[in-house]
Write a structure and sequence with these properties.
mainly alpha
């Protein structure tokens, strides 16, 4: 099961309107959830935007689930264009 950025924000932020649901999903599917390096890069950008510690966000997400490299032919530099 792929987890995207909002899932991690809900789990890692102190308060989030999705936190309770994210915690229930994580508990039910722990060990079956994974994410990509692209999601981690997005967490870094959002952490900078929100004045949070990017390393803390990435470590938090990485400690929760397996991180896989996407196989879609793009790299992390695509996020520079988003900004």
């Amino acid at each position: 099961m792929y987890a995207e950025t909002d899932f991690f924000l809900a789990l890692l932020k102190e308060r989030d309107w999705l936190k309770k649901n994210a915690e229930q999903i994580y508990k039910k599917h722990k060990g079956k959830i994974w994410t990509s390096t692209h999601t981690l890069m997005e967490l870094i950008l959002l952490a900078y935007r929100d004045g949070k510690d990017p390393l803390e966000m990435v470590e938090g997400a990485s400690n929760l689930v397996e991180v896989r490299e996407p196989k879609i032919g793009v790299n992390g530099f695509i996020y520079l264009h988003v900004m």
